Every structure is written in C-alpha cells, then in structure tokens.
TrEMBL record:
Organism: Leptospira interrogans str. 2002000626
Protein name: Uncharacterized protein
Keywords: Membrane, Transmembrane, Transmembrane helix
Residue intervals passing through the bilayer: 24-44, 50-72
Entry superkingdom: Bacteria
C-alpha cells in the first residue's frame, strides 16, 4: 500500500501541472525523511551494529511533519487577502506561503507565471472598478482618486 501511494505521488509529480504538481512534490519530499529514518534506525543500524534505536526515527518524522503543512496550508497561495471571502489567513499559512510559491516557481514555471499574471489581472480589475466608482459616484478629481486608491491598495503595490 505504501509503495502504491509513492508510485501515485511520483505519477502526480510527472503528469500533473500547477498547484497539484507542487503539492505532490511537497508531499513526496515530506515522505522521504521518515522513510529514510525508518530504514536507517529500524532496519540498517540493527542489522549492521546490532543496536536497535527506533526512537531516533522521530527525527525523520519531524522533518516530514515540517514539510507537509506547506502543501496542506497553501491550497490558494495567490489569494488576495483583502478581497477574499475569508479575509483572515492563518499564521502558518502566512509563514509557509513564500516557501510554497518559491517551490511552485521551480516545479512548474509556466503555471506559476500564469497564476501571477492572473492575480495581477484580478488586482488591476479591482483597482479600475474602484477608480470608476470614485469617479462616477463621487465625482472626485484625478488627484483625489489617486490618493484614495493609494491608501486603499498601498499594501499590495510594490
């Protein structure tokens, strides 16, 4: 069963695209340390040295447990926080989002660029809609609208 799961993950790494591929890579990378620690501390070390040290397998599981939340928590790493349905992000998601996006840019560059472009388009749509509302509903001048938009979207403009 474990081998079948590993084969399925490798298949997803090779065949899938975008977020699914990045999540499969992260899940696969999260499985490698526990498997290696089990092999070393439960099978190889007792066979060669005669010393059973099963407690040390926790070291590998800790590294695996540190990798898996990155894949699990970042189901939508490109979500704009202010305009989403769920505006509050979890702290762990905020911490792991840069690592997920970095790995995503390495694993599937084309899909990552498409996501970035799509996010930028969505952001510009929001800015233009708000600008049009300020112009038509309140009849503000260009300078007044630009200062309001700068305050509203200043955190998202680099």
């Amino acid at each position: 069963m474990v081998i079948l799961s590993l084969v399925n993950l490798v298949f997803n790494v090779i065949q899938k695209k975008g977020r699914a591929k990045t999540n499969a890579v992260l899940l696969f990378l999260g499985l490698i340390p526990p498997i290696i620690s089990v092999l070393v501390f439960i099978y190889i070390r007792p066979t060669i040295y005669g010393v059973f040290s099963g407690g040390y397998t926790a070291i590998g599981f800790i590294f695996g447990i540190l990798i898996w939340p990155i894949a699990i928590m970042n189901c939508d790493a490109f979500q704009l926080r202010q305009f989403s349905v769920y505006p509050k992000e979890r702290i762990l998601t905020k911490i792991t989002k840069p690592a997920f996006n970095f790995l995503y840019s390495i694993v599937d560059k084309k899909a990552w660029m498409s996501e970035v472009f799509s996010k930028n388009i969505q952001f510009m749509k929001l800015v233009l809609i708000k600008d049009t509302e300020l112009k038509e509903d309140y009849d503000y001048s260009f300078m007044k609208r630009s200062s309001i938009l700068a305050r509203m979207f200043g955190n998202y403009i680099k």
